[in-house]
Amino acid sequence: SELQKLHKKFVLGNILQESEFWATRKNLLDDETNKASKQKPGFKSAMLADVRPSADGQTNKVTFSLTTEIIHQIFAEKPAVHRAFLDYVPKKLSEKDFWTKYCRAEYLLRTKNTLAAKAEAADDEELAMFLKNDDILAKEAKLKIKRVDPTLDMEADAGDDYIHLPDHGILRDGSRETADIDSELARRTLSQDLNRHAAVVLEGRSTDIESTDTKTVAEALARSKKG
């Protein structure tokens, strides 16, 4: 093995004492351990869009399965949802009701049921916030575009955030349609989801949270962003 070769070279070659050799190896191993511990644990590369609802085949009931890992990823990819969770749970909504409304909004978006989405949003303020474009990401997009060298004047390449503008992007599930300028629902694009997902996966978790309590995960993530 490589270790045996090094031992033969340095110890049997009278370059290092036995104790010195193993002390050096220990320091190297400690360094590797420290480096590994400082690396951000990553998210799974699977898209949140791949978390598909299941139907029982007998009724119209549709079920989404949300694990703590998935919820952590939702918080990371959708900062407006993360903010809403901290603001609403448990003061205004139970955690169950919060995620029921979130999943209902996702279902309406995936099925492109715009009329039903608008109707339900008009009667349900909490559900409506899940149907809107993420205002936090929109602000980040504007800041990125402002930082682009004005001499380049290449808006389409100023970042992936060009797709935040109306009439651009591929709607969720791959269909290409012209965006309705009057409807924020139409601005939820697959391209936006893909780019945000890729950025979050590459960045990794901002904090390594082992807790299975959603509130703990949300609060720890908020603290890590402030720090």
TrEMBL record:
Record InterPro entries: BSD_dom (IPR005607), BSD_dom_sf (IPR035925), Tfb1/GTF2H1 (IPR027079)
Keyword field contains Transcription: yes
Keyword Nucleotide-binding: no
Residue stretches making up the BSD domain: 58-110
GO biological process, one term: nucleotide-excision repair
Pfam families referenced in this protein's UniProt entry, alphabetically: BSD
UniProt xrefs under SMART domains: BSD (SM00751)
Subcellular localization: Nucleus
Keyword annotations of the record: Nucleus, Repeat, Transcription, Transcription regulation
Domain of life: Eukaryota
GO cellular component: transcription factor TFIIH core complex
Sequence similarity: Belongs to the TFB1 family.
Subunit structure, as described in the record: Component of the 7-subunit TFIIH core complex composed of XPB, XPD, TFB1/GTF2H1, GTF2H2/P44, TFB4/GTF2H3, TFB2/GTF2H4 and TFB5/GTF2H5, which is active in NER. The core complex associates with the 3-subunit CDK-activating kinase (CAK) module composed of CYCH1/cyclin H1, CDKD and MAT1/At4g30820 to form the 10-subunit holoenzyme (holo-TFIIH) active in transcription.
Function: Component of the general transcription and DNA repair factor IIH (TFIIH) core complex, which is involved in general and transcription-coupled nucleotide excision repair (NER) of damaged DNA and, when complexed to CAK, in RNA transcription by RNA polymerase II. In NER, TFIIH acts by opening DNA around the lesion to allow the excision of the damaged oligonucleotide and its replacement by a new DNA fragment. In transcription, TFIIH has an essential role in transcription initiation.
Stored PANTHER family: TRANSCRIPTION INITIATION FACTOR IIH-RELATED
Protein's name in the database: BSD domain-containing protein
